[in-house]
Amino acid sequence: MEGASFSLIGMWDSMTWLGKSVVSVLLILSIWSLTIAAERLWRFQKAKKESLQVALGVTPLLKQHKLAEAITFTKDKRFRHSHLARVLAAGLTEFQYEATQDLPPDFDLVASARRAIERETLMTTAEMKKGLGNLATISTTAPFIGLFGTVIGIINAFRGMAISGSGGLGAVSSGIAEALATTAFGLFVAVPAVWMYNYFLNKVERFQVEMNNSSSQLVDYFIKNEARARVR
């Protein structure tokens, strides 16, 4: 009977309703964090693959000064997950639109395109960070939820001592088992959440570098294009 009481089912049966509530909350948080991680992993893999295709496809179009074709290419639905496609499309579209308007001579066309790129970069970065705040929250709160379960287990252990009127191991084993189980489960939920948060945050930072590099190259292209137009 004692051996059965220290199995997972045995410990669950011996827990108070508060201890079971703590474990249930931690289980929900674990499923939630894994769901976020799976979705972000899929999203980032798609972004990396599609952005590579965009970089290889848009470069020759810009070298041939095919601005309209480049805009159409970057806005293709095949690249809807690409961070580079969004940033390049924003800059190219703004540059083409402003170039066709009746603007004053002192209007800075390149600066306007740069602002459009910066706005799209901010929005794309915010979208890529979707769910990461939840991972951070889970990683920081799960140990405290487990600690709360630990306190409940210790209280249950003292309660067993009070009921039995003795301080033997049998009187406190159930409560101690509950305390250790909730602590371990809290750490089991928190540690992977921390790893996943740091991993995805590093991925976002790399994507930001890629967007900044592509934006810089696109702005250089606009400057050269504008200078070429003035010479003509």
Please specify the SSE layout and strand pairing:
Elements lengths: L1 H4 L2 H7 L2 H47 L3 H8 L8 H17 L9 H20 L3 H33 L4 H63 L1
Helix pairs in contact: 3-4, 3-7, 3-8, 4-5, 5-6, 5-8, 6-8, 7-8
Report the strand count.
0
Mean pLDDT: 83
Radius of gyration equals 29 Å
Strand content: under 5%
Q: Class by helix and strand content?
A: mainly alpha
- Contiguous runs where pLDDT drops below 50 for at least 5 residues: none
Report on this model:
- It is a single chain.
- The protein is an all-alpha fold and 232 residues long.
- The protein has one domain.
- The chain has eight helices and no strands.
- It has helices at 2-5, 8-14, 17-63, 67-74, 83-99, 109-128, 132-164, 169-231.
- The mean pLDDT is 83.
Key words describing this protein structure:
232 residues, mainly alpha, 8 helices, 0% strand
Quickly describe the structure.
The protein has helices at residues 2-5, 8-14, 17-63, 67-74, 83-99, 109-128, 132-164, 169-231.
